[in-house]
Every structure is written in structure tokens, then in C-alpha cells.
Amino acid sequence: MTQPTIDVAERDTLFNAIGTTVARLQSQFLGDQGDLLKTQARGELAELRRRAGQPIDRDPLSLEKTLLVLSPTLNENSLGRGDAPSPSEEAAFHALTLFALHMQSATRPMHVPKQSFAAACGRLYALSDSASLKPRFDALLLARSSRARLSHMRSMITLLRGSQLGFDYARFASDLRALDSADKRSGVLLRWGRDFAMGRFHTADDTSTSDNN
């Protein structure tokens, strides 16, 4: 049996680690597992939320906190070995902190498996009267740096939070990792543009999206 490449192994462990972690935090935050765990989850999310949209290297505790919250953790191939975070560590950090922002004051799940980030934004566009929403999303697609993209993502997720629209954070983390790869970035952005356009036509509880290739 052919062994997967390191790139595939990193992507798969990131998807699983983020999906399982945010599902757990979400269930605890919404009170599904009792008041004690709800209080604990609120504290963890509040701490993560303070770092949402910031570079991972701005705070020396950022990577440590990310790895402590993740369960299951990233595998050995996905972890960094030097003075800089690995692509999977950085994607996990941004996915977790933006999820924490999204869950602020939430009364329903904001991690919605199989619903893509861009499709949720398209659904928001269909429901919104704001003329600025599509230009905001377009600016995200056209951003020339990862920092600019993160700023636009933070803005869009704040708007999604206001309308209680969620998306799949495991897929989102995989996309964040791919966006920092020059040979994969254009494909992710093309798919996001498609998902945004098609998201307009989906009902609020429709979780269908284009394939995550």
C-alpha cells in the first residue's frame, strides 16, 4: 500500500484535529455537557478570541495555547521543528481563534460540518440588504497577503456571527493551510468564489458545498 505524502498526512491530521476540537468546545459552550464544562469552554474560547486575526508570532503564548487546546493533537509530520510555526500549526491557530470569535454569544452551533466558509458567506449575502457585503468578500479573494486575507476573514466571520450562520471549521483549517502554499492558493480562491456564488441559492439549513479538492 502506497504511503501518503507528508503533505497529505499534514492536511488529514489538521482536518481531524480541528474538527474534533471545535465540536467539543462547541458542545461544551452550548451547555450540552453540563455547567462545569460550559464555564471551562467559555474561558478557553475567550482566551483564544483575543488572538483572532493576529499573526501567530505576535504573542509567544499563541502556539502553546493552540497545541494545548487541540485534542487530538497534530501528528509528528505536522508539527514544526524550528523557530517558526509549521503550516499546519499556523492554520490550526487561525482556525481556532476565528472559531472562538464566531462562537461569542452564540446560541446555536457555528461549526457546521460540510458547509464551506464561502458558501456561508454567499448565504449571508442572499439574506443581507448591505451593498458592501459582496465587495468585502471580493476584497478577501483579491488580497495580496495572508495578513490582509486574515483581516477580511475576521470581518466576514463577525458578520456571519451576527446572522448566526456557521460553517465547517475543519475544512476551513485545511483551506487556510493551502492558502499559504503558492501552488494551491489559486485553486482554493477559485473554489471559494464558486461556493460564494452558489451559496446565495441554498436554503439556511442546506449543507451541500462543492468538493474540497
TrEMBL record:
A Pfam family this chain is assigned to: CRISPR_Cse2
Top-level lineage group: Bacteria
Protein's recorded name: Type I-E CRISPR-associated protein Cse2/CasB
Lineage: Bacteria, Bacillati, Actinomycetota, Actinomycetes, Mycobacteriales
